[in-house]
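Hey L., structure's done. Input below.
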Amino acid sequence: MKILVNINKVFRELLLQEDTDQDKKITKDDNGPKRFVLVDEKTKAENIIEGTYHLANLLQELALLKESNKELGEVDLSRINEEPVERISRKIREDYWNELTRTIDKKGLMQILEDEKTSNEIPTLYVSAKDKQGVKYFQDLENELQNFKVGILPEHYSDEYIETLNTKPGILALALEQKLYSLQGVPFVVPGGRFNEMYGWDSYFIGVGLIIDKQLDKAKAIAENFKYQIIHYGKILNANRSYYLTRTQPPLYSSLLIEIVKQETPNIDWLKSHLETVILEYNSVWMVKGKRLTTTGLNRYKSDGVGMPFEVEPGHFDDVLGPYAEKYNLPIREFEKQYLNRTLVDPELDEYFVHDRSLRESGHDTTNRLINTCANLNSVDVNSFLYKYEKDIAYLIKEYFNNSFQSADFLYTSEDWDQKANFRKQKMNELCWNEESSMYFDYDYVNEKQFPFEAATTFFPLWAGICSEHQAKKLVEIALPQFIKSGGITGSTKASNANFPEDAPQRQWDYPFGWAPHQMLLWEGLLKYGYIEKAQEMIYRWLWLITKNAVDYNGTIPEKFDLETSSHKVFAEYGNVGTEFDYISKEGFGWVNASYQYGLEVLNDNLKQEINKLTPPEDLF
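Output:
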């Protein structure tokens, strides 16, 4: 049923009555009567809207109507009364993915360049000299628009060269494609908020959500941009900004290809080009001895570059820089400036930042698991991802290329890659599995011992298929309960946090915070090993948490959650992206959106109805 309303009048009256804290949202924290009379301008009939959730829905629908700049508009009461699960999922499917989609071309370039991280007076776009088509396209565009400048990256560059770009940082070009009579940017989907670029491992999880929502072309476009980055920048980047050229992200390219070929019979030429690039990345990024490949035969995260990472806000490293500022008798801001610009160099501090940059390459920025130690660790996460690469490559060669695949100067069979995977599984079980603790721990290959930090990454081998049935059972029955809170699993256990000083900075990837990728990889691992009921429980917990916060807080879908309080109100390190908006959330947050759609695809109908009723997990499990 639709009713006619005076849009601006009702909008003002609703906010005046219900938004008592004046944050441009209607939430459970407001103290209004939580009851609003909505009058149909046509029939003069009164419609009573009650409760935080329904009033917030009304505000959101009015915010959309206001964009028409009309005096009168129709409010659809079925949208006001829509069940929470159906509303959240619909908005992700119909609105959020589109709002998060970007292109780097004439149409979309300025949306990318003019964001809060652009510090140059004239925004800069860097294009690799290898990309002849891109160089010409963007130089022509520069001459036409004259509101940005193009920088050409040499075909080969050093870490020192990349550091020189820090005085003039900019966005990095991505792939172009021929559409009709013009070139257009190949689309990508950003996480949201201040993350207005293509992020490495976020993009895989986003791709999973896109595929579920029947947007396969966008998932394939992500793969195209992965390929472009490997060919033109040498790796899948942390994100496509100039100061990220020194580091990659968790390797999930092959997993995205597997998800794509599950949906359709692939064009063999398309698949061949991507499989070649996956193998190129595997060999040139991950398997170079002395870099990301260590003496154990297992891998580590190891970013290139020197000194403090460029992207952090002033003050982020005060606890680290303070003693060094005293050592050089400088105010901390002056020391930070000189150290960032490399006019002052300290070898001990440089070593700290080798680990810090590598930690950021891991995607877990930050966690006490990796602080000042990351580059020394054969981490469980990266080796789980690379095992999956090896198994995926073996599968694709066998399934689509008659068990014979030419890449560069090598002719591969699936057995070649199964052999690599078997070696990695053996080494991980030898060095990382801890039978007594029933967990996988990172292995410190420098000091030749396990680093016994209890992190959610212990479940990544379950996702990758590394575990024996015995190990899976111990992970599920003994390890998992130590991570479970009402709303899912925490990034680490509370016990691991207890090993650090009480006044130590709270790290956002540790206890008590919960993240979508940890949940999604756990769910898939549980399903892979036949723990169906436990998977249903864990999916319910996370979707209940997302739904509860959206119902209570005007549709908010944030980057992460505090699982101790079952809240999006997180006060650690970088805050919480996805919580700052006026009246209506237009994009949610990329991988949380994806986790919601993935979870709903697996969850049984009875549990979906319990989520709509916001039944606490403790009442069900």
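The two ends are 38 Å apart (CA to CA). DSSP finds 23 helices and 22 strands in the chain.

-- N.
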